[in-house]
Amino acid sequence: MRITKVGVIGAGAMGAGIAALAASAGLPVVLLDIPGHDDPTHPDRSKPAREGLDRVRKAKPAAFMDASAASRITTGNTADHLALLADCSWICEAIIEKPAPKQELFAKLESLAPDAIVTSNTSGIPMAILLEGRSKRFRERFLGTHYFNPPRYMHLLELIPTPETHDEVLSSIRHFQERILGKGIVLAKDVPGFVANRLGVHGMVVAGRLMVKHELSIPAVDTLTGALIGRAKTATFRTGDLSGLDVLVHVTAGLSQTTGEDLALVPFVHELVKQGRLGDKTRQGFYKKDKQDILALDWKTLEYQNVGRYTTDAIDAILKKPLTERLRAARDLPGKDGDFLRELLVEQCHYACTLAPELAFDLAAIDRAMEWGYGWELGPFKAMDAFGLDWLRSAIQQQGKSVPDLLARAGNAFYADVNGSTLVPSLGENNRVAVPAIPGQIALGHLRRAGKVVRENAEARVIDLGHDVACLEFCGKMNTLGVGVMDLAEWALDYGVKNGLAGLVIGNDDPRTFTAGANLAGPRQLLEKGDWKSLEMLTKRFQDTVMSFRFAPIPVVAAPFGLTLGGGCEISLHCDRIQAHAELYMGLVEVGVGLIPGGGGTKELAFRFTNALAPYEEADAFEGLKRAFKLIALAQTSTSAHEARSMGFLRPIADRITMNRDVLIADAKARVLDLAPDYVAPTMRKMTSMGRAAVANLDYALWSFKEAGQASDHDLRIGHEVAVILAGGDGPPREVTEQDLLDLERDAFLRLLGTKETQARIAHTLTTGKPLRN
After folding, report:
1. Is-contact 63 16, C-beta < 8 A?
2. Over the stretch 232-262, which tens digit does the pLDDT of each residue have?
3. How far apart are CA 586 and CA 593, in angstroms?
4. What is the rounded distance in angstroms from the CA atom of residue 180 to the CA atom of residue 184?
5. For the domain 6-187, what is the CATH superfamily, name and number?
6. CATH class of segment(s) 441-589+637-681
7. CA angle, corner 656, sides to 652 and 658, nearest 5?
8. What CATH fold (topology level) applies to the domain 196-433?
9. Exposure string for 139-161, b = 16+ CB within 10 A, e = fewer
């Protein structure tokens, strides 16, 4: 049941976001909404859908992975254009959260598109109610698809099958959502709130009540419920502003009614809604932005104050610890902060243990739902293991609650490694079951625990992926590239050749960062010592490491994702293939620290863009250099892998994009095995440089930036060095090799290191984590 065309009904934030995601994945999409006018002759009846598309076009962060994908969406209205859905393979309903309009729409779709899979994006209406009056065939092709906002960035998708959903339908929609749209799938039971929102809303309600009880401030609660306990930085109230306070009131009221639980928000939230203070969409809610300052609400007076970030010495000390240690330390926090946090954690853990069998089909699904949907580093049951189950059972009893059955039979931990498998308590019986695998995933963490690490140091590891493929994994802070990475890269390639491996993958399982680039701490120490010989050797060695991936006798595939900056971009550019995750923020950003891309990046773009124009006799080779110069001098960074392709970091055909981060390593491994049977390593390239004339043209562009106040004198110096490398030197045109440009890179890199301006930029970045313009 291949899905080739998508229909979305409802062009609000969710519907338009789902349409943008499907279009970004390459599918044609029909986006409909209610008519904007009752008059059937009115020329702009489709205004609601058109405006919905306009909103996601302008959304920040961007809803589209490539702006051009918006052209794949056709808009219309449900009165005049419902027939456009007739040939859609999948139709997603995302209209008003009331049963009657949804039921009326499904009645029309039943006859209009009998072969389509139809899903509802309802956040809480039971599927059984939505299906009232529908035929057996419609029921078999129907289920819930509960996305989280914004759909592009939130990994979680809850699938809610009914007892009548056909297995093939569920299998088809799951495969499509996982592989084509990149979602992390959790199968939820058809209960109010499903999994993530049921637990998340409960947590927000309890946090608000305990804040009032312990007389804490809103910033204090956000500090205590954010990174301190491994949850999203937006924590509790910042998340509320993002969601909308009116939405919170609506959702909590609905869940209270359908579940019979008391999920009412604290009274001051209702007062804010009455006053129209709804969060980010009205520019004030729990927080308010005042020029450059962020003001926090005093919930007692409903006035805003600039109180800054809340912290204490104890909190600052805990935040420096690894996550598992952080959780154990947070549970023992002193004072009323600790009293609040312990009471909150006990309440949330008790709730999760009690409701788990009602919400999901397996325990791991609940952890995945909170990790993928709410940004928790560890789901509730993994966090309970970190807190310690004996402590938790005792704390629950101290608060006058009974220990839930699931917690009682968990023993020492919910997650237990048994004979190489991870087992968790069953939600239905008194036994343990294996954690369901994510389809197609190669989990590096699992391989590490299974003893598949072949060699490692503080900065990198080499892991056996099976089928004669190894993985070079970065593992230092922000996965920066230092001597340890270079040592392991050299060893890995030598190991691969000597042991007849099919090839090498370069990748890791960090949630956000492939690599932030070169580790500047080492060069800075050498700089302070005045050890220029060692600096030159270190620079040359990094260039050699990057080029070793290009000339290796076995295929090397990079699997970049997230932040892929500086040296990480250079490594990727020199691999045989790039298998990138769709969320790729790639760029050569060295000018921000006063340097040029010195690991082959400048050279590679010069060759790549110049050679791309070579087949066209009338093409001006300078256009290729100008394109490279713009990327480097402006430190341009992609906002997606699709944009990285249009920028030239990814090649149009050779390099591919994986939508689902969970299967990125597996896809990269498959590329290696595809290349291996007839692999021949590339040879050193040559080209005719443009020389002095190109340098002069690029220098003129730099001067224009300075005249416009957009560049400093040092920016001009850096830009001139880039221009000289791209042009193959500041002399007459000549034939140059890749090595010639690498030598120019290295000389320029070292010259800039010797300037006080670059040294100041490096020191500022290492100290603050931010760039310095000087």
Report:
1. yes
2. 999 999 999 998 999 999 999 999 999 999 9
3. 16
4. 11
5. NAD(P)-binding Rossmann-like Domain (3.40.50.720)
6. alpha beta
7. 145
8. N-(1-d-carboxylethyl)-l-norvaline Dehydrogenase; domain 2 (1.10.1040)
9. bbbbbbbbbbbbbbebbbbbbbb
